[in-house]
Amino acid sequence: MERINKNSFTPPFYQLATILENKILSGQLKAGESLASENELSREYELSRTTVRKCLSLLAERGLISTHQGKGTFVSRPSLDRAEFLMEEFHTHLTNMGKEPGYRLVHVQFLKELPEFAVRLGMKANQGILYYCRLLMADNEPIAVEHKYMQYIKGRPILENEFQYKAFSEVIMIHTDILPVRSQAILTAEIAGEFDAKLLNAAQGAPVLKLQQALYAGDNKPIGVGIFYYRGDRYSLVSDIHPLRGER
Amino acid sequence: MERINKNSFTPPFYQLATILENKILSGQLKAGESLASENELSREYELSRTTVRKCLSLLAERGLISTHQGKGTFVSRPSLDRAEFLMEEFHTHLTNMGKEPGYRLVHVQFLKELPEFAVRLGMKANQGILYYCRLLMADNEPIAVEHKYMQYIKGRPILENEFQYKAFSEVIMIHTDILPVRSQAILTAEIAGEFDAKLLNAAQGAPVLKLQQALYAGDNKPIGVGIFYYRGDRYSLVSDIHPLRGER
DNA sequence: AAGTGGTCTAGACCACGAC
DNA sequence: TCGTGGTCTAGACCACTTT
């Protein structure tokens, strides 16, 4: 049995995690089987139970095991047929990729009515709706168009500068003093409409990733909704599921 | 100052997390500001430092704070302009949604050459390539088509049944005895090709979510690649980012 | 009653950053 | 040097499941 090296720079909980992960990935521990109990592992590897638990919680986070109070800890399917996509805010995403984000405010308008999809999400027009449309660019190439609809508060100034550069949840907070606390988003594939295709400098019928987003206040009422259309040929999401590194 | 109720069924670390989360969401703690140190929090709320740390790690996981050794703990942007999408394996996804998954094996074939995108991913043909194509359905409606390319091992039987029902990583392991340990996937929007559109029972030019997946062995060599095309109008990904519940 | 995971405590030592 | 977060220990009590 492999042992824990207490002089290594890699902490014991991490060493144990890689040991157990290897047993799972190599098939020594098969899906559905139960692991040794926390107390047993603690004895076997001469670690405190706290340390064993920290290791197990790491493996659980990664989907390799699942724990059940009173029953034990079990190996999960080594499910690689699975993907996790993180869609960052546009500015963050581009700077991470080493590109220059650009913004163009295309349209700002006051509306009395909400578009149909916003009504379906349970949003109300109240005092009116502030609509704006923005073009997102990377190194001056258009990547996405976004359409935003938010509650309008009478008497509040409409600051176009803010629309151009700030994230939607900030714009909402500045205009309404309400900080959104919940966000729901739906991602699908669609064909770009004529208006959006033209802005994106894409051909008629070009495929886009459509992201529909709703922001909710603390009372769970939607206070802003938005739609993004990302050019399919210039924007993609990446998922990488890999084993723990031996060292870190 | 709010205090921890030690008689509540909600554990202290969770109570503290909601207290701190509320301070962040309400704006009492602004982005970039530093939190009280772990020792201070420990004194203030009369909890052990271990418990305080468990609470902080929960908030860090949720992106509300970030910790920096030697410097302190800082409030992050309340970034709601962000989305996390989890794409489960098809069978799991459908049963979660209460639908009946269905599979139809469309094609199985031995190839001598790999398609161009697989070569670009660094895959080699070696003894040959096993290709198959499968139609994925929900309640008998076509949802997605997948094309898989994997290493062929001479002399090994080709079991069509397995292709129809098993996950790709299992099929690979059964045929090659190699268990993939790493998966990389790229998601974009595209227009369905003629062949795929027909299988999906969709119109010419219909938009699809394209998922390109590569599975790697322990030596980081690709041993199988696949492409999924999901009908844009029947498949979508959902993200929900919300505050901690008061009770649990 | 015995065994399992879930939570908590009080104290220790270390690595890192700022002074 | 001091304060910060990162890790570890040994022991305790609880809730849940099985016997």
Automatic annotation (TrEMBL), chains A, B:
Residues 10-78 form the HTH gntR-type domain. It comes from the Bacteria. Keywords: DNA-binding, Transcription, Transcription regulation. GO terms for molecular function: DNA binding; DNA-binding transcription factor activity. The keyword Flavoprotein does not apply. GO terms for biological process: negative regulation of DNA-templated transcription. Pfam families: GntR, UTRA. SMART domains: HTH_GNTR, UTRA. This is GntR family transcriptional regulator. It comes from Sporomusa malonica.
